[in-house]
Amino acid sequence: MPDTAKAALIDELARVVGKNYVLSTPLSLALYECDAETMDVARPDLVVLPKSTEEVQKVVELANKYSMPFTARGAATGLSGGATTIYGGISLVLTRMNRILRIDPKDMVAEVEVGVTNLSVSHAAAPYGLYFAPDPSSQSASTIGGNLAENSGGPHTLKYGMTIHHVLSTKVVLPDGSVTVFGGRSKDKLSLDLLGLMVGSEGTLGIATEATVRLLPRSRFVETMLAYFPSVGTGGQAVSEIVAHGVIPAAMEMIDSLTLNAVEDYLHMGLNRAAGSLLIVELDGPQESIHVQRQIVESVAKENGALSLNWAKDDKERALIWKARKTSFGALGRIAPHGYVLDGVIPRSKLKEAIERIAEIGEKHKLTIANVYHAGDGNLHPCLLYHRENEDEVKRVMLAGKEILELCVELGGTLSGEHGIGIEKVHEMPMAFSAHDLAAMTWIKNAFDPRSICNPGKIIPQLKSCGESGMRPLLRHKLLSGC
Fold it and tell me: Where are the domains of the chain?
């Protein structure tokens, strides 16, 4: 864009959101060049922070007027590069839109703006004995808008499902600047499920600005077990057998020995450093049901060689157990300064095989791989540890990541459970989807965004090389394709 046109756009944007909320200096833009997937970096041309749906609408109208792409951004805790502006343009940051508009305890819903954090919804609902069930590990920072974009899950996905199962409606600014609402409080079976299409579309079909989300009553009874196993394989087998016995826990989470020791180095909570894996099982519901399920869980754990197990005595112990799980990725920073976190999905019955073959991939590429699992629903989170300044190591990380995703698809799984495709897995999409599938996705994208200015370059593989398409070259392009 010529400097004169850019200056004119900045002036018009400033009249919409205020001059303090249009950022254009190199230092300011550098702060918005990636999300939590730090391997892919692309600086936006402008950063704009609107305060309302009306301001978002006007910004999008101006983006159309000046033919400038735009990408919605929340707290940037995403792990697939979904908020990275790989075609430049406007980074449309929605964190100022952080109001909880209404808590309705009678209908058990909350009406919120999309910049509200996940955990703050539960805090606002707590006085009514309610909470918002999706609980990504980043829930204290991640926003509802990001949860909608990626269809986020978390440890309790096994029993309570993904974000889509807890959203009733969302207000959306479409790529042409028009505003609509998908969904509603009452279930509509007479129209297309456009809400289902929007949730998980990673900001490529429009920008959600408000949402009505479902709240659930807190369970009166919760039991949380921490068990140690001699290996990840034995722990994984226990997970499969617990479900095979008809028990559906609220959550089943597992971490390997490497991660366990990193967490212990960080928290000093007395974890068993000699164990091959740590398994967390949480049960909730009626007390009588929990009593029966607890017996089954204990029996299965012991049959699979559990070294020890104990149940949290109170909420304080339960919180400490979950702290061990939710701080695990941060604790890995003690081993290496950078971590590339995947989230492939496999059938639960293939967990043991997947674990063994991921270890082989790590050995092949001479990499350290730490493993954290949403074990109950087969969502794997291998974390490939590396040093960004070592380009050869980074290349090996990318190649190993691709092989792990190939493994997931080979075993009957898919590319992503909750982090999304973004930039990270876009070139792997043909592994899981046929040419007809990808064409159908392209038709949908074109129907909503015919000018391709709404978060372009995400999810659907580009036919042209990055240089020909206008995409800003990324490190992965440089190392893997010489772009």
Answer: 1-218+433-483, 222-330, 336-410
